[in-house]
Amino acid sequence: MRQAVEIQPSGPLRGKIRPPGSKSLSLRALLCAALAEGESLLTGLLQSDDTQAMIDCLSCLGIEITQTGGGTRVIGCGGRLPIDAAELYAGDSGATARFLTALLTLGRGIYQLDGSRRLRERPLAELLQALRALGGHIISQSENDCLPIVVHGAGLQGGQTTVACDRSSQFLSALLMVASYAAGEVELVISGEPVSRPYVDLTLAVMKAFGVQPAAATSTRYLIRPGRYCGCRYAVEADASAAGYFFAAAAITQGKITVEGLSRDSRQGELGFCRLLEQMGCQVEYGDKQTTVIGRPLHGIDADLRDNSDLAPTLAAVALFAAGRTSLRGIAHARYKESDRIGDLAAELRKLGAEVKEHADGLEITPRPLHGAIVDPHGDHRLTMSLALVGLKTKGIVINDAHCVSKSYPRFFDDLLSLIRQSRTEG
Predict the structure, then answer these.
(1) Looking at the structure, do residues 268 and 141 belong to the same domain, yes or no?
(2) Catalytic: which of 92, 310, 344, 401?
(3) pLDDT digits 0-9 by tens, 6-34
(4) How far apart, in whole angstroms, are the C-alpha atoms of residue 322 and residue 324?
(5) Of 224, 257, 279, the domain-final residue
(6) Counting beta carbons within 10 angstroms of the beta carbon of residue 78, is it exposed (0 to 12), middle (13 to 18) or buried (19 or more)?
(7) If residue 113 lies in a helix (H) or strand (E), which one and from where to where?
(8) Distance (Å, whole) CA 314 – CA 331
(9) Residue 174: closest CA among 115, 233, 239, 105
(10) Who is most buried in 74, 145, 372, 402, counting CB within 10 A?
(11) CATH number, residue 317
């Protein structure tokens, strides 16, 4: 069902907000807990379409997962998948599809994995090639080595493989998380310049929490010896990507917003958004378990977002209200996300009156007087939330298919409205 939301200009936003748990950490913790020996308790787990897709698929494989008042309880399989045949559906979640593809090679049976129409178009070939080199038997039913796939699980032998990560770091993360369950040691050699490297660091941090670390790790090579995850209690940190929308709201409205649950020492690379806002003129204050952004007059910047392309739509929204041109570059791989986050974003911003130049690997945005319009987020949760921010200062912006925020942040519009109400109370 198409759900349209009209955003009303708010004035300066002031208040406190705590975003939901990190999607990236939630998906990695679920996979490691499923493979672990014993029981894990995950607290703060994100409740969203993507995490539910992962939970549903793991449950279909025989992993016991229950929601309790104290968190999410996972009984790990010790690396031995209980089910030898399953048909799995990853929905629209690229990370779920890629992580499960690697997991299924550890099983003993035949598994089918599919996803949404858009997910069938997203890259998978680099991961399949690497897994095949390690002994995985995977058949793609598409011409481009994408979903749907059939995995004939017989375990991984180990050995050396080369993995290209210039389109997604999730290929490397998927391999890292299952490598210790191969029969022999696994050497992963990185070809080219990987994108989104902070997500790989996040993967290694989650693996360490569950008791597994590479024997050697450099920017171009990882060596993982056989080992097993141990069940544990794992607290999922607040989502830094989600926090970015509220930091951006403070910048756009020249307000003051405090995000709770995130401090300067967060491992999530997306917190670097605050540094970009500082470069644009905002003031940022870090506390023990919180971060505050205070809006100031903005100016354009040149931003290389190769490591954090998810920030591009959010920064683009801020750039509309800055003095001078803003350049977003290094994000060619963003064309393979839930939407083409370069071409589709440019098209929607132009509907609002913005001057946008599209390049192969990014955008140049020059502020112009904006006006209301009906915009289409192309089924992309991040485009939806970013376009909503523009409506905080521009009257008449209506977002179609706004329900797609359920992919990562089902309560986004409720939380945004809560901040607007806080601001009115303070005012």
Answers:
(1) no
(2) 310
(3) 999 989 999 999 999 999 999 999 999 99
(4) 6
(5) 224
(6) middle
(7) strand 108-114
(8) 13
(9) 105
(10) 74
(11) 3.65.10.10
